Amino acid sequence: MKIADIDLGARPVMLAPMEDVTDPSFRLLCRENGAASVYTEFVSAEALVRDIASTTRKLFINDAERPVAIQIYGREPEAMVQAARIVEQARPDLLDINFGCPVKKVAGKGAGSGMLRDIPKLLSITRAVVEAVSIPVTVKTRLGWDCEHKIITTLGPQLQDCGIKALTVHGRTRSQMYTGSADWTLIGRLKEDEGFTIPLIGNGDITTPEQTLDAFSRYGVDGIMVGRAAIGAPWIFRDIRSYLDTGSYTPLGAAEKMAMLRRIITESVERIDEYRGILHIRRHLAASPLFKGIPDFRQTRIRMLRADTVAELMLILDEIADKFLKI
User: In the predicted model, what is the mean pLDDT of residues 300-323?
Assistant: First the structure.
């Protein structure tokens, strides 16, 4: 699959943009494990234009993580154009527009998936951003605002006409948030449209190598994006890539997985500071499948998620490795 001149290989699997998750070190770890490309945390156009330090830091790219996309969101065309030009100076491989974020603080203000209630404005912003930059522009969105307005089969060709080079579709509406099951049916129907010729990337509820292969086979998508299943488990890309390429995979051992989690902790603290770095990685520790299903783990889990120094956290992980994982 190619996005413009960027070759992502056959049946690429990408890391989805996730706020407070897809920082530079985690993106690089996912690339090392087989992710075909990675996306930054989403970046507020308004904050970028105002030069808010916490937002501009999100533009940092490590060359080793390429190909990488920077994703922006906003509701005003002028701010989106200005932000796109700022992003271009950071030299990402792709600029992605977020028309899919469902959280209230974004969608409720008319940005992210909130744009699905104003399609003329959504298309106007897309055209303006495409015209403002020379790097390839892509879009990530949802099926529609709610179940009565699943518009992706008509919206997809309209976005293509705006000049975007690829489209990612999450198989839920905004009103679903992340509840229920992702519906890939309309994603597959869009792919069947002979007039829709840009790469189509499917997203939603992909958690195993087997599901990944099934989605490629059943819906004919060009690529697949993995989001929540990668949190605390960057090795998922290794398993998926092996399964797609060879038909089998050998899961990593607990020691190798623990080493990756320790790396996430260390690099987060080095990038920010000890206090905020540990807060940042708690989501990875809470979600990691490495700790799922361990008997009598509740109190240790609470201690792990309350630890506020690297020394304390590493000692608890040592205890978990010895007592529960036997490594």
Answer: 97
